[in-house]
Amino acid sequence: MKRKSFLQNSAAVIGAAWLPSASFANEPLKKTIRFAHLSDIHVKPGAIPESGMAKAFQQVQLLKKPVDFIVNGGDAIMDALEADKQKTQIQWDLFTSLLKKENSLPVYHTIGNHDIWGWFYKKDPAALANSLPDQDKLYGKIWVQEILQMPGRYYSFTKGNWKLIVLDSTQLNPAGGYIARLDEEQMNWLQSELSLTPKEQHICIISHIPILSICAGLFFDKTETNGDLLVKRNLMHTDFLSLKKRFRNYPNIRACISGHIHLQEEIEYLGIKYYCNGAVSGNWWKGSFQEFEPAFAIIELMDDGSTKRTMVKYQVN
Ligand SMILES: [Zn+2]
Known about the structure:
The chain has helices at about 5-20, 45-60, 85-100, 140-145, 185-195, 240-245, and strands spanning about 30-40, 70, 105-110, 155-160, 160-165, 170, 180, 200-205, 255-260, 265-270, 270-275, 295-300, 305-315. The protein is an alpha/beta fold. The chain has a six-stranded mixed sheet with strand order 4-5-8-9-11-10. The protein has a five-stranded mixed sheet with strand order 3-2-1-12-13, with no helix packed on it. Helix 2 packs parallel to helix 3. Bound molecules: zinc ion. Zinc ion binds near residues 208 and 260.
């Protein structure tokens, strides 16, 4: 997203808090907001990933019913979590140059776990000259926010009578790895975003990792020997029960959109649609992941608060 459009959007958001009708006075209300949700692009150097990302964006520009904007659902690049600075730079250069070349629509970005630099970087003992990522100012979530010109790791924007809230799902887990949840600061921010949104304005929440998902339990394609189907802490929001309780106070929350698990599903639970929209990269650029081919979603947000998702498959080369 260009900083300028964020400033315009944030002005609308601030305005919406105290002047719900006047803030949209200059913006003609459109019946339906349409956007493409492209998640888990995982671009890296190579013929298939490069042509795949290009083809996906080309297909979005050529849609018969045009979309108003694109949401990058996160995991834009193959991996920065374990990569050194040079490998991370190469992947970001590729992502930004392909985006510039193949896309003319506004893009709103989400941070995926693989977009975070250096959390799990293991220094090669032979490369003593390499500085550690955690001593670098771009460490963690700073680099992705800078390179994609994000207004913050979480933010919101408005389109017509809809507020879209973009969350940052991935937190460092003290017990190892990463965990899907909101940190305290972000949870407080979300709470105030929800309470400041006028009741008549609809809300769509975007997170990289699904807030609610049954497919999260199917990711490893196996049942435990005791019969359990496990939902791992890094595959679905571990704070779902707390979020659900909050969501119950805001019937204007209509849809939650995610990626991350490369599987596709549509769930309706307590009046909210939970759409998990697969992966542009399918099986990390090796064909389909389980039953799901490389794809992206078209999301339609209607004026009456209803929503519709259409998955679009495309040819990667
Ligand atoms: Zn992910």
